[in-house]
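If you are new to this repository, start here. Below is one unmodified record pulled from the training split, so you can see the exact layout before writing a loader.
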Amino acid sequence: MDNGFFKNIEKKTGVNMKDIFDLANSLQNANFKDEKTVRNVIRRVSQIANKPVNKEMEDQIVKSIVSDGKQLDFNTISNMINKKK
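And here is the target side for that same chain:
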């Protein structure tokens, strides 16, 4: 892809594309049935997106992914973090 494309995304979102690619690479062989792995991913996404996740929200996301079998991807976590209570 065009480097300018990624620069535009970085400028609009404030999210570093290298961080996104590093996260995506780390997810390729991750075990999403492992609670510790899922918590680490949630914390990384939270840090990259600059959106703090409190313990209660983290627990809900972990339960949804580990126990309920919800698919883990950036959009799923982002939607859960941004969900209005």
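Two things worth knowing about this chain: The radius of gyration is 14 Å. The chain has a mean pLDDT of 81.
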